[in-house]
Amino acid sequence: MGSGQWADNLREWFSAFSFLLTAHCPLLSFLSYTPLSILTEPMQASAQEQLKEEPTDQETIARAFNFADLSSYPFKQRLLIRIADIGFYTIIKLIGSTIRYEVEGWENWEAATLNNRQPIYTFWHNRVFASIYFWQKRGIVVMTSQSFDGEYIARFIQRFGAGAARGSSTRGGTTALAEMGRLLRLGYPASFTIDGPKGPRYVAKMGAVLLAKKTGQPILPFTITPRHYWEAKKSWDRAQAPFPFTRALVDIAPPIFVPADAGEKELAAKRDELQTVLDELDRRGLEWFHQ
Q1: Mean pLDDT taken over the chain
Q2: What pLDDT was estimated at residue 73?
Q3: Is the pTM of this model over 0.85?
């Protein structure tokens, strides 16, 4: 999941739902008056420096699921990271807890997780809000950047029981994709917003297909369609934030497997298959939406 666009969408979501936060925690209203975009310097926390050497399995797991050290940030940045983390977590938790989810295709999730397989969850970038809440507490690893925005995003998804694969920005360091592959082998599923981080909207990219080839784990396409939602019309993905108490359809497709020896043509065919499946999920979601 691209943290830069997440940050843009989350700022818009925060503006729309800040009244919910201030009703429960007045301190969080401070965010409404502080522009986060000015604080996007590369993260220099110790988690980044640890990536310069090959970590152990336990260190890899701990880095994904534990908060990174913020000691190298100035006081104001540390404060804003913590406030943004709690603020966005509160918004999603408050609204998510009121959504009435209807699930289709749960047998496909069961097929994807058979024999201790770990799915590579794949969905559109604009469905992040509802997806974080629905798939919480499953140890799913998502990709974030080493930046101010990436750090507060990593923290609030960690509060929902997810992990953050930051990788390394240093030459020759572990990439976030490689780290996701390592965590998959250790028993932690992965997740891609497959048209992210910057689009084009509703066009699947190759990340999940390549990771499936490398690890032998299945791709699990799904979509979540809320009945009523607010849309960030100025963002490239037109991100959706469900209204409180709305209904939402969770539609899960059959898993897609990619052979370990797949060549370029087969990889492209698998990407096209993923695109077709996600388009069909969208079509069914629209039918449900207009019922």
Answers
A1: 84
A2: 87
A3: no
Q: 56-85 pLDDT, tens per residue? A: 999 999 999 999 999 988 999 999 999 999
Tokens for 132?
């974080």
**What DSSP string runs through the chain?**
--HHHHHHHHHHHHHHHHHHHHHH-GGGGGGGGS-GGG--PBP--HHHHHTTSPPPHHHHHHHHHSPPP-TTS-HHHHHHHHHHHHHHHHHHHHHHTT-EEEEE-HHHHHHHTGGG---EEEE-GGGHHHHHHHTTTS--EEE--SBHHHHHHHHHHHHTT-EEE---SSTTPPPHHHHHHHHHHTT--EEEETTTTT--TT---SHHHHHHHHH-PPEEEEEEEESSEEE-TTSTT--EEEPTT-EEEEEEPPPB---TT--HHHHHHHHHHHHHHHHHHHHHHHHHHT-
C-alpha 233/C-alpha 201 separation (Å) is 13
Contact 48, 173 (CB under 8 A): no
Determine the Cα–Cα distance for residues 137 and 241; give it in Å rounded to an integer. 20
Range of the domain at 44: 3-289
6 falls in which pLDDT band (50, 70, 90)? Answer: low
2 vs 235, residue with greater confidence: 235
* CATH number for the domain harbouring residue 213: 3.40.1130
Q: Cα 176–70–184 angle (5° rounding)?
A: 25
Tally of domains within the chain? 1
**Between 251 and 17, whose confidence is greater?**
251
Judged on CB neighbours under 10 Å (0-12, 13-18, 19+), 162 is buried
